[in-house]
Amino acid sequence: MPGRDLDLLIDAARAAGRIAHGFWRQSPETWDKPGGAGPVTAADLAVDRMLKEELRAARPDYGWLSEETPDDPARLAHDRCFIVDPIDGTRAFIEGDTSFAHALAVAERGRVTAAVVYLPERDALYAATEDGPATLNGKPIAAAQPDHAGGATVLTSASTLAPEHWAGRTPPPVRRVFRASFAWRLCLVAEGRFDATLTLRPSWEWDIAAGDLIARRAGATVTDRSGAGLRFNRPDPRADGVIAAGGALWQVLQGGLATPGSQPPTLRKTL
Predict the structure, then answer these.
(1) CA–CA separation, 196 vs 145, rounded Å?
(2) pLDDT per residue as tens digits for the range 218-229
(3) pLDDT range class, residue 265, cuts 50, 70, 90
(4) Residue 179's Cα: distance from chain center in Å?
(5) What are the coiled-coil residue ranges (predicted)?
(6) CATH number (domain holding residue 211)
(7) Residue in 245, 43, 89, 261 with CA at minimum distance from that of residue 182
């Protein structure tokens, strides 16, 4: 079944790319979500509608969780659930940048079994199943395996490396880089182009589900900030931060964090 689901997700992701391309760099209608949840565009909603119609028609017994669909607790009654971000990196999409992605996953009883992250304007399609390799455009990829933090490249926001979030107020000696799509960040770690990605803020499942499987099948360790493996289709669809890295670097990053009780109550909203 994961292989059949993967084929379905790949076809849906490519169809999403065609829809998004029709809006990209065409000044799509844009507005802000309530509560400071970020921007959304007409393209996000058009992609979401297509994905929901096509995927649910193909798998009517699967639940549905998407950033752009009001959450329905009925998804919790399903053994399998689609977890979708129609456009991850909406700000990049609005700016006409090529770094936005479509992130599609199937979760079964808490674990992701099939996943696709597709960047249509780069024609880069990352994919994995729970029992197969992680791939980029059909070719296997592997995470880097650094044994220390010195000089490591970490995809994260500047606020994450603020001294107050680290034991002894000493951030790791890494080189910080940022990309708008968190799903793509996880895939860049899977590809070995960067050594790690890290966020300390609560992270929505639709941002991380697809990239979680792809990074893990490429040989990276992916957990929440406490070191626990990620679980999906939960009543509260958020993880307590995300750490993804290959080799010993994961241990360095996770072990270097200050305990949550010593953290300030909020972080900046940038993942």
Answers:
(1) 10
(2) 999 999 999 999
(3) very low
(4) 12
(5) none
(6) 3.40.190.80
(7) 89
Was 87 annotated as part of a binding site? yes
Q: Does the annotation list 240 as a binding residue?
A: no
> Do 113 and 21 contact (CB within 8 A), yes or no?
no
The response to whether 195 counts as a known ligand-binding position is no
97 is in an annotated binding site: no
- Mean pLDDT (the chain) is 94
Cβ(51)–Cβ(12) below 8 Å: yes
Evaluate whether 114 touches 138 at the Cβ level (below 8 Å): no
Q: Helix, strand or coil for residue 218? A: coil
Domain final residue, candidates 140, 169, 188: 140
Judge if 116 and 174 occupy the same domain.
no
CB contact at 8 A, 63 and 82: yes
pLDDT tens across 168-186, in order?
A: 899 999 999 999 999 999 9
Answer yes or no: do 174 and 241 share one domain. Answer: yes
Instruction: Give the pLDDT score at 38.
Output: 83
Domain housing 90: 2-140
What is residue 242's three-state secondary structure?
A: strand
- 79 annotated to a ligand binding site: no
pLDDT for 270 beyond 50:
no
SS3 labels along 56-76: HHHCCCCEEEECCCCCCHHHH
Write down the pLDDT at residue 34: 82
In angstroms, rounded to a whole number, what is the distance separating the alpha carbons of residues 197 and 150?
A: 15
Q: Which tokens go with 42? A: 């007409």
**135 and 6, same structural domain?**
yes
Q: Are residues 40 and 116 in the same domain?
A: yes
**Do 132 and 30 fall into the same domain?**
yes
